[in-house]
Specification:
mainly alpha; Arc Repressor Mutant, subunit A; two-stranded antiparallel ribbon; elongated
Length: 176
């Protein structure tokens, strides 16, 4: 089961309710959180100086609780996405350009080789470091007079019942 991250605002709400005298069960019921989570947050906050009687700044304590639970996101690595994907940049570029694979297929290949990254991280990496594959830009058309150029389109509209053959048939249309 995965852990859900709760925001500082939710932690402030827990601490405010605790300071008001609410029991853990009531706090959990009203916030929709698990009782163990509420108890854990209150226990950590009490270790940071929170108590029902003191006049402490709830926002500061809630932020300290959040940082203790979720750790320091700024671990000095700079950009973990780039540190994971940069060694594979050449392979990613090759798969996109030469083999003409979609980004979804590239993501699946990376996962098979043991590179753990999300699709959105891979997408951002490709946008920033590799360039957008297959993006040829927009072709602008010259200004023309009304009726000078005609555009047509052909497509499948759906099914239509054919009385002559007593069955459904696919209906195609040409749109001018």
């Amino acid at each position: 089961m995965s852990d859900k991250e709760y925001t500082v605002i939710e932690i402030v709400d827990i601490l405010r309710r605790q300071a008001a005298g609410d029991k853990v069960r009531a706090i959990a019921r009203s916030t929709g959180l698990d009782r163990k989570t509420v108890s854990k947050y209150i226990r950590i906050a009490e270790g940071k100086g929170f108590s029902k009687d003191s006049d402490t700044n709830l926002e500061e304590i809630a932020y300290e609780v959040f940082r203790e639970i979720h750790g320091n996101d700024n671990n000095g690595d700079g950009n973990t996405r780039d540190s994971i994907l940069l060694p594979h940049k050449e392979a990613i570029t090759d798969w996109l350009d030469r083999e003409r694979l979609t980004l979804t297929k590239v993501h699946m290949k990376l996962l098979r080789t043991g590179v753990e990254t999300s699709y959105s991280s891979l997408y951002r990496f490709v946008q920033e470091r590799v360039g957008t594959p297959g993006n040829r830009g927009t072709v602008r058309m010259a200004e023309t007079q009304s009726g000078e150029i005609t555009e047509i389109d052909f497509g499948r509209l759906g099914y239509l019942f054919d009385k002559a053959f007593n069955r459904m048939r696919v209906l195609y249309a040409l749109s001018i």
